[in-house]
Every structure is written in C-alpha cells, then in structure tokens.
Design brief:
The protein has 421 residues and is α+β, with helices and mostly antiparallel strands. The chain has twelve helices and 21 strands. It binds adenosine monophosphate (AMP) and glycine.
Amino acid sequence: MKIAIIGSGGREHALAHQLYKSKKLTKIFCIPGNAGTEEISKNVDINFEKFDELYDFLNNEKIEMVIVGPEKPLVDGVVDFLESKNIKVFGPRKKVAQLEGSKTFTKNICKKFKIPTAKFKICYTKEVSFSYLKSSEFPLVVKADGLAAGKGVYICKNINDAEKAIEEIFNGKFGKADQVLIEEFLEGDEMSFFIISDGKNYKTFNTAQDHKRVGEGDTGKNTGGMGAYSPSSLINDDLESKIINKIIDPTLRAINEMGEKYVGFLYAGLMIKNKEPYLIEYNVRMGDPECQTILPLIDNDLFEILNSCCTSRLADQEIKWKNKKSMCIVLCSKGYPDEYNKEVEIKNLEKKNNFNDKFIFHAGTKSIDGKILAIGGRVLNFVNTSNSYLESRREIINEINELNWEEGFFRSDIGYKVINE
Ligand code: AMP
Ligand code: GLY
C-alpha cells in the first residue's frame, strides 16, 4: 500500500521512520517533508492547505491512506474532505478537532461532563474581562481562543499583566478575537498523556514530559518544545485510572453524544496536583517533540496500528512497548524562538545514521544540491533510548557535540526533574 504523511517537522520524520519499517507499505510520501524524510520517502512540494491540489496528487498516485501530523489541517477539515473522496485518513474530523481548535469548545465539554480543569470564565468584551479581573485572584491565566501555535497563553502575576494580555488578544494579535478565556492558575506538575482511538475503542499511547521554555531550568520564552522524555515519572496505575475515568472517558462520551467519533491520536496536557489530574488542554495529534520521543519505544508495526484505527479494528491490535526510557533533545538555530539565520549549512550530518537506540529526526531542514540546510527554528531532534535518562542525556549531548554545528544551541538540562546527578 502507498501512504502519505502530511507535515514537515520532527514528528513527521519520526512517523515516517517508524512506518518505513513496515513490510506492508510499498511507498511513503511526505507532504512536504524535510531533508530527513527525503532519505526514506518521497517528499512532495505541494501546499496541503489547498485540499483540491492535495486530492489530485493523492488520486494520481493512487495513495490509499493519509496520516495527518499537525493540527492546522485537522482543524480546517482535511479529514472530512478526504473521506468524502474515499481516502482513508488517520486523524479526527473537523467538528471534534475543535478540542484543540477552540478552547471554549473544550471548556464547555468540561463543564457539562464535570471534567476536572482550571475554573474559567469566557469573556466576550474587553469591558467584561476587565471587570471580571477586579474580583479575581492572581496569578491567573489569560488565553486566546483558537490555534495560536503554542502562543496565546499568558500567565499573569497581576492585574496589569492581565489587562495587557486582554488588550493584545482583542486587538487581534492571534487573529480576530470574539472572546478570551480567563482561568485559574493551576500549580502542580505537568504531564502529557496520549491515547490512540479508532472511533469505537481506544488504547493508551504512553506518556511524556516536555520542556517548552527556551532556557535552562524552564526559564525564558515559550517554544514549540526544546526536548522531552518518556515515560513521565508521574504516571502510575492509580493516576492512570483517574485520568481515564475523570478526563478521557467523559470526553469521548461527549463526542459520541454529539453524534461524532474520535479517530486519531488524542493528547491530553495535564496538571497533576495532590495526585489528582486536571485537564489544561487537548491536542488532536501527537506532540512534537513527544512523538519523536515516544515512537522509538514501540515494538510492533506502527502501520498496522494506524491502519487498524482507520478500519475500526484497534481492539484486536496489540501495541507492545519496550521497557526503556526515551529522551529527545532539540537542536535549534541560535536566536530561536526570535529571529535566526536561515539556509545555514549543517555539515557532518551524513556521517550519522539512525540505529536501534539512537536517532536523529529532522525538523527545519531542507536538502539542496546535496547539502543539508537549516531553514527553521527547531532543526534536529536527537533521540536516545536506554535504561536511564542520565545515560540517554549523556549520549545525546556527545552526539550533538560531535556534530559541532556552530549555528545551533540546545538545552543540556532536559529531564532535570528526573535525573539526580
Ligand atoms: P496551553 O497552550 O493551554 O497548553 O498552555 C501552554 C502552557 O501554559 C501549558 O503547558 C502550561 O505550562 C501553562 N498553562 C496553561 N494553562 C494553565 C493553567 N490554568 N495553570 C497553570 N499553567 C497553565
Ligand atoms: N510539545 C507540545 C506540543 O506539541 O503541543
């Protein structure tokens, strides 16, 4: 079978790498892919946001199944569109993709189904927001609705910060805003919890912890993710059953009651406080870099797992996990998440291969005339699986130092909460 993966990041290279091992696949296309996916699949330079062009290509190549990496096409309805053309797609339809696309959609489900989450208020005007702030306790969190690529969330220490955030949101910093969300600040430990679902049944899909801030010790600006480790050290049977009973099951019930079904990965961003889980947000896809961190722990054919979801057969599909710890450190362009140089060559990369326990997944890279160029902020994901996070981190840092890419920087403290040196 021929399949296509939509996206161009480290998540999509990790998916392509794992799918490449499947004997059931004859060809993988990545739309548009990066320099890493080019080595194991065929990159196709079309704009996947133009659904008609996308369909023409899939149809011409007789591609039978599509796996959608990022959230934007899901929220825009690529699944509904391709299904209407009889192409199998792994990912949720537009209506349920609002779990990520609209924070108020999710909060309303939380309210109706009593899912534990931060207390919140949806405000439709600046004036109402400002007067609500007067009776609020600080710190609190102000959020823009809709997709804001990891931005659009302000942790506000006082009323001045909060008023500024509300001004920025209503002034259109993240696109046209009809409302803001003002919510209680939750103190605790964060954890990412994943499931995979075929619309009828679901299975857990491991846990992870990422580091979103650019600086050591989780300081500085927010980024797409500077590194991650899996599994999370917080997870245990008791917590897992609370997450499932109080958060995941009621959410899927809500989806079913809407006459919809959930197919794809569902990523719950959680805060764990006094051993109780609270939902911070849903993402309707795998995390990046969590995907790069988790997939190398799978011990069976990923294609069979994803295909079983597209054909409602997940219940019969085994998912085997290696009993190992996995870590990912992201090598970024100096300056990220602000300005950075583009089209900078990365030498020595061809000497590195993806082995059993060591992987380099590309993100913002492009191959031109045999040279690999950095074109994005997050450039390469170094992943290592071993018996200890400390060992994995040492191995990765050796690898990055060996590459010696002068335009890059990385966080050397990924996993510091679970590593006692
Ligand atoms: P989000 O885009 O909703 O995931 O928010 C980005 C980050 O902001 C999260 O990963 C948390 O670290 C933080 N955050 C969001 N909401 C809250 C909250 N209610 N309390 C504490 N931290 C939060
Ligand atoms: N690593 C966070 C995300 O993918 O949203």
